[in-house]
Design goal:
Layout (H helix, E strand, L loop, with lengths): L21 E5 L2 H11 L7 H8 L2 E5 L11 E2 L4 E3 L6 E2 L20 E6 L5 E9 L23
Antiparallel strand pairs: 1-2, 3-4, 4-5, 6-7
Length: 152
């Protein structure tokens, strides 16, 4: 899925050629500032993923890392919520720590991307980067849900 938001909150809506099973979430640079600094310290984030984040893009594999169910965006909480077993991920695909946020062992997996000199965005769906470990809600690196309950 492909989405764009000038509000800095990010969104996912409509279909695009970003790749089947892919959520493209676009954020304003200000909303990624804290997450980007933390991501630079995580070895799992390769230079192409960090480059996308620096430009305001996060490319998430729309598949729950628990058992592979499709993880839709919940407009109520503005999180990704797995309808199969209840794993919940913030808008950057970070898994919330704790049993109340479901059984997934890590955050959503990511794809790297490049933007060439002509502004052409290329999403590499051939290489998946495993998502980082869960983060407790209220800690730096996770965006709290808009509502305590969501869509599942």
């Amino acid at each position: 899925m492909f989405g764009s938001s000038g509000s800095g909150r990010g969104s996912t809506a409509g279909a695009a050629s970003a790749g089947a099973g892919t959520n493209l979430t676009i954020y304003g640079a200000a909303s990624l500032k804290g997450a980007l600094e933390k991501a630079k310290k995580v070895s799992a984030y390769t230079p192409p993923i960090l480059a996308g984040m620096e430009q305001g893009y996060v490319f998430l594999y729309q598949k729950c890392v628990h058992l592979g169910c499709r993880v839709p965006n919940c407009p109520t909480s503005q999180w990704f919520e797995c309808p199969c077993h209840g794993s919940r991920y913030d808008r950057l695909g970070i898994k919330a720590a704790g049993p109340q946020y479901g059984p997934a062992p890590r955050s959503m997996d990511r794809f790297s991307a490049t933007v060439d000199g002509a502004g052409i965005l290329t999403l590499d769906t051939g290489k998946i980067t495993l998502g980082p470990l869960p983060v407790a809600v209220g800690q730096p690196g996770i965006i709290p849900p808009r509502t305590p309950t969501g869509c599942i």
